[in-house]
Design a protein that fits this description.
about 280 residues, UPF0759_sf, DUF72, DUF72 domain-containing protein
Length: about 280
């Protein structure tokens, strides 16, 4: 049984020399990251569809069971709001083809203004997507979290499409006032919605935002450790992404989360052994 964990990116200047080798060419950075975590969020695809050659490099650097959750471009989700985006969608899908099984889910992150009145558009968009992929939807309109009827309607649309609802849990982050520049920046940008934890498919996806203090991040994720272990016992295979405002320690924190789940569910397979940040010496 697998529980996949990852971060919001595979390269971070604060990781170099601490967790990953200090100087790696672009074509080796994901390979080093994949020795620490077995999943990653594809956030860069939100801003532009990458060249197919870049995606081929991503596939070459990762094993077949590595999980990419890649975000649809903003031209589709935010600018056109899922309408009339056929050409952009086809271009994106062609670019993602080299990932093959590594494309765990195509991630439809919707703007906060996309509300219950837009569910017909979402349903039509999901119906038109090729069945070869899995899909995951992240909503940020508060009605989906505070209105039981709106939540049921959204779940009905997602279940009919075989899509997952991706929660971005920021409840631990917003529990106390920010105490660093990165936290103050995140305070104004991250969605503030109630926690949601119901899985709709066999492969739930969770995004969790902690604090820059590792201890507070660990304290805040207890709910998700227990939930991930529960999902494993149900036969599900979750993917959990660990965020902090500065992400400086997100890489080892993701592994720690995995360790805590394995302590509750020993049947979960271990993560790979990380590559050393520095080469071994003779002395």
């Amino acid at each position: 049984m697998r529980v996949h964990v990852g971060c919001a990116m595979w390269a971070h200047v604060r990781w170099q020399g601490r967790f990953l080798p200090p100087s790696l060419p672009p074509g080796e950075r994901l390979r080093a990251y994949a020795s620490w975590c077995d999943a990653v969020e594809g956030n860069t695809t939100f801003y532009a569809t990458p060249a197919r050659s870049a995606v081929e490099s991503w596939a070459e650097q990762t094993p077949p069971d590595f999980r990419f959750v890649v975000k649809l471009p903003k031209t589709i989700t935010h600018e056109r709001r899922l309408a009339g985006s056929g050409a952009d969608l086809r271009s994106f899908l062609r670019a993602m083809e080299p990932l093959e099984s590594r494309a765990h889910a195509l991630w439809v992150q919707l703007p906060g203004s996309f509300g219950p009145g837009d569910l017909g558009t979402l349903a039509g968009f999901l119906r038109g997507l090729p069945a070869a992929h899995r899909y995951a939807v992240e909503v940020r309109h508060r009605a989906f979290f505070e209105d039981a009827g709106a939540a049921r309607d959204l779940e009905r649309v997602l279940v009919q499409a075989g899509a997952e609802w991706v929660p971005f849990d920021t409840t631990a982050f917003f529990r106390d006032r920010p105490s660093s520049d990165a936290e103050r920046d995140a305070w104004t940008k991250k969605p503030r919605v109630p926690r949601r934890s119901a899985a709709l498919t066999e492969r739930p996806i969770v995004r969790y935002l902690g604090r820059d203090d590792a201890g507070r991040t660990v304290e805040g994720w207890r709910f998700w450790v227990e939930k991930a272990a529960e999902w494993v016992r149900e036969g599900r295979s979750p993917t959990v992404f660990i965020h902090t405002p500065d992400n400086a320690d997100a890489l080892p924190l993701a592994r720690r989360f995995h360790d805590e789940v394995r302590a509750m569910a020993p049947e979960v397979e271990p993560l790979p052994e990380p590559v050393p940040a520095e080469p071994p010496t003779l002395f």
